[in-house]
Specification:
single chain, alpha/beta, 7-stranded mixed beta sheet, 22% strand, globular
Length: 300
């Protein structure tokens, strides 16, 4: 019978996710030669080739993918074992590291932390701001215990590494300069703004969300200005330089900006939480998920 080495399996799984030996070494804080040596030893242990050359890179063999398919169940069970030990040893005492995108921090994470301090003071939350996609990389690497992200940026629902929890359908409102001809119109629809100049980032998730929402309403937005931060975007709207879609979670009152709820074609962005599969059984992680769910319900 093969003597399985969990550490070597973790290295193989990281190589599958990162794609190169160098990136794997950086993620695991190892040297590339140490990564290669560990994977060579694993191949000897299991008795089959795990890697094959592909130009200057390496790719996983079918045998390696078979090994990892079974290893995922092992990793999940180890997470559950860790969860049960934590519940036994600490009860409701624990630390949970949360990676969250910028607008989720004040809207969801801060209220959740406040509620936890009152109800479960033994649960400590450490917050790390991260872009929506980056939060999953941190979660997979074990650098955070819970990731708050956008569903559009998240791995597939069937990804065996994670358990996803839907939190909120965050409506997108339109920001118009005060005095705009459409600022007071009844039943404003996104399609009514087809002829406007739009303000959004040149690339990234918010650019994709804005373009996707407008295209679903039947037009392609004409980008007048590019900005990524909400302060800059709303300042330009206030100056009459264009209009913008703004998630309700991110809206900040400005005297010269009118926020209008859209009608039948109102777009939303879906906010989700995710943990490594199996770790949702940890008492502290469960408490944080519940607090975030309560914060999302109040916001909705």
């Amino acid at each position: 019978m093969v003597e399985w080495d969990i550490r070597k399996l973790q290295i193989l799984r990281t190589l599958r996710e990162r794609g190169t030996v160098t990136a794997t070494a950086e993620a695991l804080r190892m040297t590339p030669s140490a990564v290669s040596q560990q994977l060579t030893n694993l191949a000897k242990q299991v008795g089959v080739p795990l890697l094959e050359a592909q130009g200057r890179r390496v790719r996983l063999t079918d045998a390696a993918r078979l090994v990892l398919r079974h290893a995922e169940a092992v990793f999940e069970q180890l997470e559950r074992a860790d969860a049960e030990l934590a519940a036994y040893v600490h009860g409701e005492v624990g630390e949970v590291r949360v990676g969250a995108f910028s607008t989720a921090v004040p809207a969801l994470v801060v209220p959740a932390v406040g509620a936890l301090r009152a109800a479960h003071p033994g649960v400590v939350v450490r917050v790390r701001e991260a872009e929506a996609g980056e939060a999953y990389e941190l979660l997979a690497a074990g650098e955070v215990d819970l990731a708050l992200s956008l569903a559009a940026q998240a791995p597939a629902v069937g990804d065996a590494r994670f358990t996803r929890v839907p939190l909120l359908a965050d409506p997108l409102d339109v920001a118009l300069p005060q005095g705009h001809r459409l600022a007071e119109i009844a039943g404003l629809r996104l399609a009514d703004l087809a002829g406007e100049e739009w303000i959004f980032g040149g690339s990234g998730p918010w650019s994709d969300i804005t373009r996707g929402a407008c295209e679903a309403a039947g037009f392609s937005p004409r980008q007048g200005h590019s900005a990524a931060g909400w302060t800059a975007i709303l300042a330009m709207v206030e100056a009459g330089m264009g209009v913008a879609l703004v998630p309700r979670m991110a809206a900040v009152a400005r005297g010269g900006v009118v926020m209008r709820e859209l009608g039948a074609d109102r777009p939303v962005r879906h906010v989700v939480a995710a943990v490594r599969r199996g770790s949702e059984a940890k008492v502290a992680v469960g408490r944080v998920l519940s607090a975030l769910g309560a914060a999302a319900a109040r916001l909705a």
